[in-house]
Amino acid sequence: MKEIERVKASVVKGKIPPVYLWHGEDHYLRQEAYEVLKSFYLQTDPSGSGIERVSAKSVVPGDICELANSMSFFANRLVVVEEVTYFQDGQTADLEPILEYLTNPNPSTCLLFLADNVHKGRKLYKALDRAGEILEFRSPKRPQDWLEWLQDEVKLRGKTMSRQTVAQFIEWAGHNTGVLNRELDKLEIYIGDRKTITADDFKAVTIQTIEATVFQLLDAVAKRSAKEAITALHEVLRKEHPLKVLTLLVRQVRLLLGCNALRERGGSVSEAPSALGISPFEAQKLWQQSLHLSTEKLTRGLQECLKTDLALKTSGGDPGLLLEVMIVKFCE
After folding, report:
1. What backbone phi and psi angles, to 5 degrees, belong to 55?
2. Which of 23, 155, 172, 192 would bridge with 115, disulfide CB 3.0–4.6 Å?
């Protein structure tokens, strides 16, 4: 991602900002960037003694500033502040020491703040932006972004993967940059000197996500293919407890109902992520699937889910059989 490239460029030039704020939900990409930044300090001090990590939940802002101002035998220091909650509503820490520090940060120290969520209108955010650099680490959002990101990762390993195979791999392995990178590392070893990664390769090495199998199951339901749906159900049950499988099915059915409701009142797929609390990629898939499942059918399906949930918890019957009966009713 471009954020990592910006960190790499700073390291190559030897010009590290005195203050960084890294935020966003993608912890994997953030960790990758941290490894790049850390390499700069390990060049002059292989022991890593010039690098210090603390938690904002256990160290007060005044002490953090003292750490940043501390002198070291080595020329450069990196102070990493994790679990930063200074931007959340209701935070009570006294931020004045940090605001004062940001007016004249120690040039020999890089003070790195790590936060999941930030409010860009806060005084601290604006002060950090003036004093240093702010980077947002977030997963790709649109289907096109995911495809481009994964193709770039494949190229970095000296391999190739067709666009169709890339799309299939993402569907198979899920939308998590860390998981996809680990699976690509495994595939790189698996295919050896061969350049092209095929669908057969990732199916042999990578375990299909539960969510992907549930999606296939509901696709079969939409086609009224009980045989395909039962096959998909057995695949899911090999990986998860029946109650977890039922929970995933209920979630999927509710999201599909949400798509139908949104469409009925004139809404579009672009509104689905915020309205349903899902990613744009998942919204695209659900929106298309909901076109083939009526609100009436989904409502009946949700009722069957609730009946099956009660039976699983009270009847003592075979869980797999109860779920099979439910799926067959879905397909009727």
Report:
1. -105, 135
2. 23
Structural domain includes residue 205: no
Q: Look at phi and psi of residue 18 and say left if phi exceeds 0, alpha if psi is from -120 to 50, else beta.
A: alpha
In a shared domain, residues 160 and 54:
no
Could you list the residue range(s) of the whole structural domain that residue 123 is in? 2-136
194 and 259: one domain? no
Q: Are residues 132 and 148 in the same domain?
A: no
Are 279 and 249 in the same domain?
yes
313 in a structural domain? yes
DSSP 209: P
pLDDT in tens, 27-47: 888 998 999 999 999 988 888
Could you give the residue ranges of the DSSP H alpha helices within the chain? 2-13, 27-44, 61-69, 96-102, 123-131, 143-156, 163-173, 177-191, 199-205, 210-222, 226-237, 242-264, 272-276, 280-290, 295-314, 319-331
Q: Are residues 295 and 240 in the same domain?
A: yes
Per-residue pLDDT reduced to its tens digit, 287-310: 988 898 899 989 988 998 989 988
User: Does 187 have pLDDT greater than 90?
Assistant: yes
Where is mean pLDDT largest: 2-6, 174-178, 261-265? 261-265
Smallest Cα–Cα separation from 252: which of 321, 193, 301? Answer: 301
HSE value, Cβ hemisphere, 13 Å, CA-based, for 46: 0
Asked if 17 and 53 sit in the same domain, the reply is yes
Do 128 and 15 belong to one domain? yes
**Per-residue buried b or exposed e for 285-298, using 16+ beta carbons within 10 Å of the residue's own CB:** bbbebbeebeeebb
